[in-house]
Every structure is written in structure tokens, then in C-alpha cells.
Amino acid sequence: QVQLVESGGDLVQPGGSLRLSCAGSGFAFSRSAMSWYRQAPGKERELVGSITWFTSTTNYVDSVKGRFTISRDNAKNTVYLQMNSLRPEDTAVYYCKVRMGSNDYWGQGTQVTVSS
User: Fold this and answer.
1) In this predicted model, what pLDDT tens digit does every residue of 10-45 receive, in sequence order?
2) Which of 57, 5, 13, 1 is nearest to 33 (CA)?
């Protein structure tokens, strides 16, 4: 079955960096677009960005442009979210997602806390 496992979340100071990973299994990872979402306390889950499968074209929500970078390693079935210049408002649980047909599959999430 489809499985997504995120890792890399941590407590980091403002201005710091983190790299999140999402390992996929049970589906054709190399031929799947992947997305990162986040959900802050009391807020709705929002799209952070995504990466296509063929050209690895990325797009991002305006609030993270220039600070976050999504990449993928198809040999490792893993998608990454490099987060730089982190701000307190980036604090959230971060999830990766893959859409297969009309179904969305999510990982369990990884907590990122930005605080001094």
C-alpha cells in the first residue's frame, strides 16, 4: 500500500535551517508529483509547494518563496523540503502528499517549531 514517512522536524531558532525528508513506498514514486503541506495550530492545512515528476518543476506558496526549496531523489524514493531563514510563523506540522487518481495519501507529519 501507499506509504509516506516524513522526518527531520525539530526545534530551531529563527533564521535557522532544516531539511525535511519524505520517503515513499508502494507506488511509482519516480512518476508521481509530490507536495508538501503544513498545518499550524488552529489553522487549516495549507500547501507549501510541489514538485513534478518528469521535469522536477517546483512551485511554492508566496510566503516561502526564496526561503524553501523542494527537491527529489527518485533513486531513493524521497522528496525533500529545504527550509532556510525560518521564522516563527513557519511553526507547523509538515506533511507530504501524493495524489493517486482521485485519492490523496498523506504521511504522519513531522513537527517544526521555530522559536528562540
Assistant:
1) 999 999 999 999 999 999 999 999 999 999 999 999
2) 57
